[in-house]
TrEMBL record:
Record key words, sorted: Calcium, Glycolysis, Isopeptide bond, Magnesium, Metal-binding, Mitochondrion, Nucleus, Oxidoreductase, Thiamine pyrophosphate, Transit peptide, Ubl conjugation
Organism of provenance: Haplochromis burtoni
InterPro entries given in the database record: 2-oxogl_dehyd_N, 2oxoglutarate_DH_E1, DH_E1, KGD_C_sf, ODO-1/KGD_C, THDP-binding, Transketolase-like_Pyr-bd
Transketolase-like pyrimidine-binding domain ranges (all copies): 645-829
Cellular localization per UniProt: Mitochondrion; Nucleus
Entry similarity comment: Belongs to the alpha-ketoglutarate dehydrogenase family.
Reaction catalysis annotation: N(6)-[(R)-lipoyl]-L-lysyl-[protein] + 2-oxoglutarate + H(+) = N(6)-[(R)-S(8)-succinyldihydrolipoyl]-L-lysyl-[protein] + CO2
GO MF annotation list: metal ion binding; oxoglutarate dehydrogenase (succinyl-transferring) activity; thiamine pyrophosphate binding
Top EC group: oxidoreductase
Pfam families, per database record: 2-oxogl_dehyd_N (PF16078), E1_dh (PF00676), OxoGdeHyase_C (PF16870), Transket_pyr (PF02779)
One GO BP annotation of this record: glycolytic process
NCBIfam families hit by this protein: 2oxo_dh_E1, PRK09404.1, PRK12270.1
Protein name: 2-oxoglutarate dehydrogenase complex component E1
CDD domains attached to this UniProt entry: TPP_E1_OGDC_like
């Protein structure tokens, strides 16, 4: 086989006329060899081996191996010349000698290996021809693989986009010499394109000047799918593909006018205002519009976009088509803010707009998601929102809903969230079926030279991890940009995979650029604006006249001036005009605002039993579960029989009841299917059939909502952003993200700080995402103990010094995120259980669970009221019982920390008028809840009593890593909590 491959590497198919002889032989072939059973589809390469031409388009000898296996089964399944070739190769013919000319097949068919030497001697030029064509083949492949390294991508002409000025050795000027020698020797026809044969020198020139080495550089040969590579070759190697109609050129010019004149208008009116303009990459606007046009043509109805701040206002104005007066009024320093929140700077805001696409005459919805200054943080949020929109409209393959992500070059290369987002692109529960990534490559990161900002040749190299093709293009060539964007949109529509467009450009306006980039900005000053260059090109071609060009400019300038005049009438900033995810019908009922009420969360006994039975059984026949899981399900059934629930079964009851009511639930995170602590088991695995699974909760009732439970990649930042985006799409769903351990949310802090906690204040973006964060001090060390509740409480905005006034009217409905510090050891704690009686109709969520034991019978005798939350309650009750203090110490649990239950805390303190007030927590004093609850408890008592602290001493780390130290700390703060004179001694 090695000899076969060596020989085959020097051959190619017949011409079209020769290939026609074998059409009848081309049929699917199934053969069994040492590699197993394989089925092959005949292709053009199944024709005769001709040594006078190189392989088509740089293909390898893989197809020869396929034919070889077919030939082993049936020698007549291939052309006669291949039959001779394989017989000679098997007989031991050396490389090059196994080939026989198809001109005398009847005679050649009788040849055997011992006769080859005389025949080869009669054809002294065969070996030289093979060598020549192998050299041509290598050169063509070199252009395909490395042509982008010599492409003219930098509009300034001073930098190399790949940070390397060396020309690859296999495409240096010796290729010209090779071309001359081959042309003079035999002028063989080459079919390096899907077009009529061209002479060699024309073909090589085409590779250098059209396909791969001019204003477009294509990276695709790393893709391991032959069909995808061939598809890209066709798009860039076929002659005449970059031809534009007169109408297309005029449309492109008009879009360039809008993009350029919008920035010039802002610069003229507000030269001192920070706006992060698009100057230098004005071709971005027609690029995005082309992607949208082509996608609309392919059936896309909804496009969700995310981008950093550079060029955002231009995208809002000329792509999303936001009213210009709404944009211009944002620059008015006297604009008053409405009472809807703190708001955000104009270049962070988003937008949602449904309109007609003027090119396709089809409706299309465009969304630009609001983004903080954390440049790439919006990437997974956009992907999650896209996935949700696809889910809710039944778009299972991404043909109707798609995403476009814009990036800066330095951030794309430097921020890890980019990789996390790419890594989600092909996962079953996270794929959006292809995203078009557009990189605005300024070739500078603010003032940082790219050679100091990345180790990779290109900023886009991270995309290679998912085999995404990368199209580099000189952004000063608008037609090249448009063509590349068309190809990118077609790629996404064809293969439903990610693709990257790298717009190599410059940043025209930078604060004090000569301090750090003198050469670049000297050259920038000499550059003609790209609009001017393109207009002069079209005028020279006769595509437009100068008068038409000037009229187009005047028309758009007039639009801007009229919008500017209207913007003076805007006196108040209403952030609702900038919503990126509206929820129609959610906040109103019959035209009136809905009111927020707290209905009963209870279920009927029948419902509880029905869901409990589903939680403790396997609804699929012939499904074998693990023996240990059988015991768990049996234990659940026993609890249902006894009308009791633990945490896992309680979660099952909550989820199941919502699903039966038609509420979709999505639970995502690391190991959530089973649960990190092996308590959930929402996905069952057949022990006898690999990858056969069952989700019992999807078998509750015929008309229930679907339950999506999916293990995620080992990511927090990206996955939490994704789930946040998913929750943005609809308020009528329960979207949950669970951290493997609560403190793992540390790496998702950007999403928590910038989107979850501040999103409503900044962008009026309400969101009902639920975070499940396992938390508890159990001697597991500093990284598996604390979910850092103090961070979340610090970001809550209720005033600790003001006792809320009880309102007689109901508050307007609001959708808020929910942070739950979930237990670990309590998952199996015998006392952490509830009766069905606490879950029946008429029951409600308890913001505070009051003392109900012996101490409640004689409240005036209680000397100490301990407030706490979480796991420490069970340690306190155990300690109280062992000390015999059940009649003098009351313990109340605050279940809802924010908004703080002022009213119920006040009622509890008044119930025990003679008691000292203590806050007890297992966390360190500078962490946990103490700094949050202390001023609020004091506010409820009008500061009449101090609030004493019982807990661990202040510390830098969340917990000790020593088990013995952990137990000593626990004993110490429990002693403090129950020692009646401890606080007076401290005082």
């Amino acid at each position: 086989m090695h000899r076969l491959r060596t020989c085959a590497a020097r051959l190619r198919p017949l011409t079209a006329s020769q290939a026609a002889q074998t059409v009848g032989q081309q049929r699917p072939i199934t053969v069994t060899s040492t590699g197993g059973k394989r089925t092959f589809q005949p292709i053009r390469c199944y024709t005769a081996p001709v040594a006078s031409e190189p392989f088509l388009n740089g293909t390898s000898s893989n197809y020869v191996e396929e034919m070889y296996y077919a030939w082993l089964e049936n020698p007549k399944s291939v052309h006669k010349s291949w039959d001779v070739f394989f017989r000679n190769a098997n007989a031991g013919a050396p490389p090059g000698a196994a080939y026989q000319s198809p001109l005398g097949l009847s005679a050649a068919s009788s040849l055997v290996a011992p006769q080859l030497s005389s025949l080869v001697g009669a054809q002294p030029n065969v070996e030289k021809l093979v060598e020549d064509h192998l050299a041509v083949q290598s050169l063509i492949r070199a252009y395909q693989i490395r042509g982008h390294h010599v492409a003219q991508l930098d509009p300034l002409g001073i930098m190399d986009a790949d940070l390397d000025s060396c020309v690859p050795t296999d495409i240096i000027t010796s290729s010209d010499k090779l071309g001359e020698e081959l042309t003079l020797r035999n002028r063989p026809p080459l079919r390096v394109f899907s077009a009529p044969p061209r002479w060699l020198e024309e073909s090589l020139k085409r590779y250098r000047t059209m396909a791969y080495c001019q204003h477009i550089g294509v990276e695709f040969m790393f893709i391991n799918d032959l069909d995808q590579c061939q598809w890209i070759r066709q798009k860039f190697e076929t002659p005449g593909v970059m031809q534009f109609t007169l109408e297309e050129k005029r449309t492109l010019l008009a879009r360039m006018v809008r993009s350029t004149r919008f920035e010039e208008f802002l610069q003229k009116k507000w030269s001192a205002e920070k706006r992060f303009g698009l100057e230098g990459c004005e071709s971005l606007i027609p690029a995005l519009k082309t992607i949208i046009d082509k996608s609309s043509e392919n059936g896309v109805e909804n496009v969700i976009m995310g981008m950093p701040h550079r060029g955002r206002l231009n995208v809002l104005a000329n792509v999303i088509r936001k009213e210009l007066e709404q944009i211009f009024c944002q620059f008015d320093s006297k604009l008053e803010a409405a009472d809807e929140g703190s708001g955000d700077v104009k270049y962070h805001l988003g937008m949602y707009h449904r309109r007609i696409n003027r090119v396709t005459d089809r409706n299309i919805t465009l969304s630009l998601v609001a983004n903080p200054s954390h440049l790439e943080a919006v990437d997974p949020v956009v992907q999650g929102k896209t996935k949700a929109d696809q889910f809710y409209c039944g778009d299972t393959d991404g043909k109707r809903v798609m995403s476009i992500l814009l990036h800066g070059d330095a951030a794309f290369a430097g921020q890890g969230i980019v990789y996390e987002t790419f890594h989600l692109s092909d996962l079953p529960s996270y794929t959006t079926h292809g995203t078009v990534h557009v990189v605005v490559n300024n070739q500078i990161g603010f003032t940082t030279d790219p050679r100091m900002a990345r180790s990779s040749p290109y900023p886009t190299d991270v995309a290679r991890v998912v085999n995404a093709p990368i199209f580099h293009v000189n952004a000063d060539d608008p037609e090249a940009v448009i063509y590349v964007c068309k190809v990118a949109a077609e790629w996404r529509a064809t293969f439903h995979k990610d693709v990257v467009v790298d717009l190599v450009t410059d940043r025209r306006h930078l604060e004090f650029p000569m301090f750090t980039q003198p050469l670049m900005y000297k050259q920038i000053k000499k550059q003609k604006p790209v609009l001017q260059k393109y207009a002069e090109k079209l005028i020279a071609e006769g595509a437009v006249s100068r008068q038409e060009y000037e009229e187009e400019i005047a028309k758009y300038d007039k639009i801007c001036e009229e919008a500017y005049a209207r913007s003076k009438d805007e006196k108040i900033l209403h952030i609702k005009h900038w919503l990126d995810s509206p929820w129609p019908g959610f906040f109103t009922l019959d035209g009136q605002p809905k009111s927020m009420s707290c209905p009963s969360t209870g279920l009927t006994e029948d419902n509880l039993n029905h869901i409990g039975q589903a939680a403790s059984s396997v609804p699929v026949e012939d499904f074998t579960i693990h023996g240990g899981l059988s015991r768990i399900l049996k234990g659940r059934a026993e609890m249902v029989k006894n009308r009791m629930v633990d945490w896992a079964l309680g979660e099952y009851m909550a989820f199941g009841s919502l699903l039966k009511e038609g509420i979709h639930i999505r639970l995502s995170g690391q190991d959530v299917e089973r649960g990190t602590f092996s308590h959930r088991h929402h996905v069952l695995h057949d022990q006898n059939v690999d990858k056969r699974t069952c989700i019992p909760m999807n078998h509750l009732s015929p008309d229930q909502a679907p339950y999506t439970v999916c293990n995620s990649s080992l990511s927090e930042y990206g996955v939490l952003g994704f789930e946040l985006g998913f929750a943005m799409a609809s308020p009528n769903a329960l979207i949950l993200w669970e951290a493997q351990f609560g403190d793992f949310q540390n790496t998702a802090q950007c999403i928590i700080d910038q989107f979850i906690c501040a999103g409503q204040a900044k962008w009026v973006r309400q969101n009902g995402i639920v975070l499940l964060l396992p938390h508890g001090m159990e001697g597991m060390g500093p990284e598996h103990s604390s979910a850092r509740p103090e961070r979340f409480l610090q970001m809550c905005n209720d005033d600790p010094d003001v006792l809320p006034v009880r309102r007689t009217h109901r508050a307007v409905i609001s959708e808020r995120c929910l942070i739950i510090f979930t237990p670990k050891s309590l998952l199996r704690h015998p006392e952490a259980r509830s009766s069905f009686d606490e879950m029946l109709p008429g029951t409600h969520f308890q913001r505070l669970i009051p003392e109900v034991g012996v101490a409640a019978e004689r409240p005036e005798a209680v000397k100490r009221l301990i407030f706490c939350t979480g796991k420490v309650y069970y340690e306190l009750t155990k300690e109280r019982k062992s000390r015999g203090l059940e009649d003098t110490v009351a313990i109340s649990r605050i279940e809802q920390l924010s908004p703080f239950p002022f009213d119920q805390v006040k009622a509890e303190t008044e119930r025990f008028p003679n008691a000292d007030l203590v806050w007890c927590q297992e966390e360190h004093k500078n962490q946990g809840y103490y700094d949050y609850v202390k001023p609020r408890i004091r506010t409820t008592t009008q500061k009449a009593k101090p609030v004493w602290y019982a807990g661990r001493d202040p510390a830098a780390a969340p917990a000790t890593g020593n088990k013995n130290t952990h137990l000593i700390e626990l004993r110490r703060f429990l002693d403090t909590a129950f020692h009646l004179d401890a606080f007076r001694d401290q005082q």
